[in-house]
């Protein structure tokens, strides 16, 4: 599948198995989601541009390669995307964080926007949208649309679990968006939940129901 990257590193897969387990409580769930986000960020940033530079070691000058000035922005979709933010900031502490608040209407399954606060220079940044669940794809596609309206052109999406419907839902209007996921599950159930998935990511992260 074009522009879809399934990250099958053993550590990611092991931690995802624990995340899926219904017996995993909120504290451990949060820790695991953050850990997987760190590992996924490592893969998703593989192509970041480097530039030649020089530093002085205690022994002498060394030619080195450092990240070129490319600015990064991470954009969690509230609420569940918040669980992945600290993982990315651990690796890229200078990234700016924008927030997009969307909830899925339980009847129509369509996203409803309730909040948006983005870095002012969002159009100049390479952006990574964070949301653990890509179900119908409505929320992620809406987030991409909001970012493109603000001039963003370089957008990736990072999720833990994607349904085939969600991948299609994003790529039908936004084939340019690279999707990084730890798994592609079987399907959606009649309530729009990913099967087998992990349940409701927001509720499991924050202990609500
Ligand atoms: C969940 C999830 C995604 C969305 C995925 O959020 O975190 O944002 O559903 O579904 P979709 O691909 O069909 O749009 P939810 O609406 O439950 O809000 P929450 O994160 O505040 O719990
Ligand atoms: N949102 C979730 O949190 N889980 C799903 O399976 C689908 C949407």
Portion in strands:
25-35%
Overall pLDDT, averaged? 96
Order of H and E elements: EHHEEEHEEEEEHEHEEEH
Q: State the low-pLDDT regions, or none.
A: none
Q: Care to count the β-strands?
A: 13
CATH T-level topology: Rossmann fold
Classify the helix fraction into a percent range.
25-40%
The radius of gyration is 18 Å
* Ligands: 1-O-pyrophosphono-5-O-phosphono-alpha-D-ribofuranose, uracil
Q: Distance between the terminal alpha carbons, to the nearest Å?
A: 35 Å
User: What is the overall silhouette?
Assistant: globular
Judged by helices, strands and strand pairing, the structural class is alpha/beta
CATH architecture: 3-Layer(aba) Sandwich
Number of domains: 1
Name of the CATH first level: Alpha Beta
Give the oligomeric state. Answer: single chain
Q: What's the total helix number?
A: 6
Q: How many strands, which pairing sense, and closed or not: the largest β-sheet?
A: 9 strands, mixed
Cofactor: Mg(2+)
GO cellular component, one term: cytoplasm
Pathway: Pyrimidine metabolism; UMP biosynthesis via salvage pathway; UMP from uracil: step 1/1
Enzyme class: transferase
Features of the shown structure:
209 residues, alpha/beta, Rossmann fold, nine-stranded mixed β-sheet, two-stranded antiparallel ribbon, 32% strand, globular, binds 1-O-pyrophosphono-5-O-phosphono-alpha-D-ribofuranose, binds uracil
Which secondary structure elements does this structure contain, and how are they paired or packed?
Blueprint: E1 4-6, H1 10-20, H2 26-44, E2 50-56, E3 61-67, E4 72-78, H3 82-91, E5 96-97, E6 99-104, E7 111-117, E8 126-130, E9 133-134, H4 138-149, E10 154-162, H5 164-171, E11 178-184, E12 187-188, E13 194-195, H6 201-206
Parallel strand pairs: 1-11, 4-5, 4-6, 4-8, 8-10, 9-10, 10-11
Antiparallel strand pairs: 2-3, 6-7, 12-13
Bound molecules: 1-O-pyrophosphono-5-O-phosphono-alpha-D-ribofuranose and uracil.
Binding site for 5-phospho-alpha-D-ribose 1-diphosphate: 79, 104, 131-139, 200
Pfam family, one: UPRTase
Cofactor: Mg(2+)
